[in-house]
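Example 3.2
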Amino acid sequence: IHNALTAIVIIVTAMILCGIVSSVYFTWGEPNRIETYHDVVASTIAVTQPNLYLRNTGTSTKNFFSAQMNGGLYKQVGSEFIQEGEIKVDFLLARAGYPEWKWLNHNTMRSAFCYPGTANEGSNKDWNKLERLPEGTVAEVYLSFDQLYPTAEILDKFKDRQMKPVWFAVDTSFDNNSEGNATSIHFIHFPIGFSYEPVWHNSDMIITRQEEEKYGLMGKAVSTTGTYPELEAYGSAELREEHFIKTLELLKQHEDIANRVALGPELKLQQRIDYVKEHGVNIYGAVVTGPTKEILKLREEPWVAAVCLGEAKLWNWDYVE
């Protein structure tokens, strides 16, 4: 009995100590590690998954130096954000496990862009689908452009239109897959880009107020209030591009986590960063959403080379700029 009780006490004590160490490890620093890992996961999804956002996240530290993060995956169709799935990521200290993805919609788009010069009639057949959608519907559409465009020019093309660009595909040196049969459609399977509404990082916050409250011998609670940079609706191109490069550099610092979260091959972030810094942020496609009949008007625009229909919903449009 004495030996059994001793073993139980040792196990319980070890679990308590492991829990304390885990809590200190993941909550240490400013921002703390769990906030940083959340930033990396959310940014990886925003960069690698067109029109997909991590929301309603929850994090918890566990015994034995581990933590868990989970959240919902949402996309914008019209003015509404609809849930596409869920994700759960376990961490053992600084190492992330393979995420558990749960998709609610099996038709979620994964590859829908063509590199400039590779589009053909087959990559434009979804215009007919858009024509058949009735008045009073909104759609999510993946547009491919006839050439590479700077951010400022693309933003200007959508100005004064009743639609919203929600994600931009950027040329990062891995996107031109035009070799092969000229009659086949060359979809880009793993695009990299940035969202119209940036996923701001902790370091982007401009702190306007900070309060610190101490409790106990070593405890303290810090309350911070701040704002993020303001963006012009169809401007601030330079700020958007700087934020995109900053995001790639953040992911490079935690590349193991980013590679686990990204749905595709290794990201090779340093090569992408070097390419973008040398050639600039050049856009070859965008995800847009809005009233179906308004999006159909883009069919006559020479800069739209191909279209792929994502999802369509009943009217929910209240977007006004």
